[in-house]
Amino acid sequence: MLEHTLLQAVVWLLGIAVLIVSLFKRWHLPTVLAYLAVGMLVGPHGFGLISDLDNTRKLAEYGLVFLLFTLGLEFSWPQLHAMRRAVLGIGGTQVIITTAIAAGIAYLVGVSQPGAIIVGGVIAMSSTAIVIKQLSEQLEINSRHGSLATGILLFQDLAVVVFLIVIPTLSSGLNQDVALDITFAILKGGIIMTLMYAVGHWLLRPFFHEIVSSRSAELFTLTVLLFSLAAAWLTQYFGLSLALGAFLAGMMLGETEFRHQVDIDIRPFRDILLGLFFITIGMLLDISTLPKIWPWVLLILVATIFGKMLITTLLVALSGAERGVALRTGIVLAQGGEFGFVLLSLAMEDDFLTPTATQIMLTVVILSMVTTPLLVRYNGRIAKFVFAKSYGKNRRQIVNNVATNAEKLQDHILICGYGRVGQNISRFIEKENHKYFALDLDASRVREARAAGQIVTYGDSTHPNILEAAGLLRAKALVVSFDDPLAAEKIVLVARKARKDLPILVRTRDDANLDRLQQAGATEIVPETLEASLMLVSNLLYLLNVPVRRIVKHIQEARTDRYQLLRHVFKGQDWNDLTEPDSARVMLHAVTLPNSAYAVGKRINELDLSKRGVSVTSIRRGDAHSIRPLPDLVLRANDVVVLYGDAEDLEHAANVLLRGH
């Protein structure tokens, strides 16, 4: 095999990673699987581009540290309390039962006690990243099975912390009584966690206030890195894992007002190192062993998917949920997950599993995660097929309940979503003696609101039959009051198809999805950030003694023009936010024309910038105020041309102005 320098290996690794991740993104597959595929290709069992596994794994451990740090950052005691039934009840029981059954079977087939415990933990975990992302995309995250799945996943994430405490103790060699070792490890871990959390709770906030007072973003990021890595080192010093300390650091910072800034600063380190962690896991997978181990892989894979599905379904059903909801919850949690790789990596460090057992478990977890997109996508169809009669009966009951509550309404306002905004809308409607009917998916909120006499019913407003039962064909207007662009677009499309004349008002957070909602058929779209700007402007103009009539005219013109004036902004560092849709990545850009610029002496219409998707909004000339960019205006040296368009088109337009191409 050819010798490769370190730089060559890194270049090959990055090149293959870019190619594979982009392909997986295009195919709408999880990036975790892409990184695993990269590892399989570049590792010693693939093309052999990287053979130094030990050093690579040591670096990848920091990806694990930042993964747990992020988990701690997102941890919320109020959320845990609010979801305690699903988290502690169903989630706790699911992890305990699944771990016990899988560990027992592993021990019976010859795996050591510590190895069997880890195998049980690996099987018990599900993929939080894949499941949450796909449920959100399918608008099922707030459904009954979505809420239950989220609660169970939250407990699984917390259970990883317990394993992080237990595994280092199992590796210490005190194997006379595993149960006693585990109990001692949990007690020791609990004491250390409590002490660290107490110290952090009292000292962290004032310390970070001092750091923030320096107004240095660099110092803030440096301090976050220091704190997270120091906490990881401290837990390792006491015989626990690095990742446990990172989780504690994240949990402590998550309780401060700096949480969101910390998340933004740490994200680049986390994403790159976490990708490297999954690449190293993929490098460990030896495809050449598959012909020898495939019967075991197939057996454990099928047992994992159907076993976890059965356990979760039974537990959710015993909690009082309907059978269809229970089965859908079981289906979306039937796979292995990324935290299974975390446990396997710790097991490999201490040789708890034989090489063959490691290959089997790695293959099982990867293949189960490959099935996840299909299982989650078709969970509803599978449940309807298995429980066709009862599932259809439950859906009909919901529709009938909505129809019964709305049957006497005529010319009412149909409100989709009864959160804070929806409730405020209903109060003003009542003041004007109009009728309304609200739909919401939060059963607790619906129950309390109905007890208080509010006209709200449980129902998914993205379903056409629910909207029709709520009196869509008789409604005077429809309001989408929650901030979920995908769900809002679906509701608008359904409503517009049923009623061409129906006024439809949609609330959004900003103007990112304004164009899509307009194309779907929304009559009015109310972006919160833009409306806040209008309210501030109107109050400011009033204080400046501008006549009220003129203020009203300015506000009406801005709304009539679909907020175009307010959408023309200089985005600064936010211009390259690739998570935004294309419609939200338009912005202003100022180009100064030097004496040698191509555009000097030419009229604006000669440059054909509009054909490139760019418009000229204004020209700044000398110390004068901005002048109107009339088509026949001749540009001069030192003019500042203000352009509007997306990032790529703006770059082309700037080249035209400066160099003529």
How is this structure best described in words?
- Strand 4 (477-480), helix 22 and strand 5 (504-508) form a beta-alpha-beta unit.
- The protein starts with 5 loop residues before the first helix and ends with a helix.
- The protein folds into three domains: 52-385, Up-down Bundle (Na+/H+ antiporter like fold), CATH 1.20.1530; 400-522, Rossmann fold, CATH 3.40.50.720; 572-659, Alpha-Beta Plaits (2-Layer Sandwich), CATH 3.30.70.
- The longest helix has 36 residues, at 178-213.
- It is 64% helix and 7% strand.
- By secondary structure, the protein is α/β, with parallel strands linked by helices.
Share of residues in strands: 5-15%
Give the termini distance in whole angstroms: 47 Å
If helices are DSSP runs of H or I spanning 4 or more residues, what is the number of helices?
A: 27
Largest sheet: 6 strands, parallel
What strand order characterises the main sheet?
3-2-1-4-5-6
Q: Based on helices, strands and strand pairing, what is the structural class?
A: alpha/beta
Question: What integer is the average pLDDT?
Answer: 83
- For the record, the count of structural domains works out to 3
**And the CATH topology of the largest domain?**
Na+/H+ antiporter like fold
The stretches of 5 or more residues where confidence is low (pLDDT under 50) are: none
CATH architecture of the largest domain: Up-down Bundle
Helix fraction, binned, reads 55-70%
CATH classification class of the largest domain: Mainly Alpha
> In total, how many beta strands?
9
